[in-house]
Amino acid sequence: MKKRDLIYLVLILFATGFMLFLFLYFPKNENKFIITDIKTEIYGKIKKKVAVRKGLLTHAKISRYKKSDTLVLLGIENNKLVDIGDSILKHKNSPFFYILQKGKNPKKLKFVSIPKSILNDKTFPKEWKDSCKTVWKSVVIDD
């Protein structure tokens, strides 16, 4: 192997190691996903139940009004509570969604759960902290 090839190899290994270090060392900002989920607004009908993993119906395809269809994570338990054709309503800035079924009372279900570590994080929006202690209390989980 030539000296120049050896230098290139060492530089590539160094760059790869540095990128791996950055990826593993810096913590992931999980609360950005929770904040995005809470800010999401959904209104539509359940088009079909979807298994993104073989044999596990965890998602539903939602036909939204005047918007493109979207895939929503309901979880295994919530997916059992809904039927194709049910309406789904998720208000902006809420961790809950509602299932509206003909002739039945609306079902209030959790759209997202908030770990206490994220709730106590200084970057978590202050305007939601009071709601987490009262109205949203059921979505706060111990981590």
Automatic annotation (TrEMBL):
Transmembrane parts of this sequence:
6-26
Query: Has keyword Membrane?
Result: yes
Q: Give the record's keywords alphabetically.
A: Membrane, Transmembrane, Transmembrane helix
Q: What is this protein called?
A: Uncharacterized protein
Q: Which organism is it from?
A: Chryseobacterium indicum
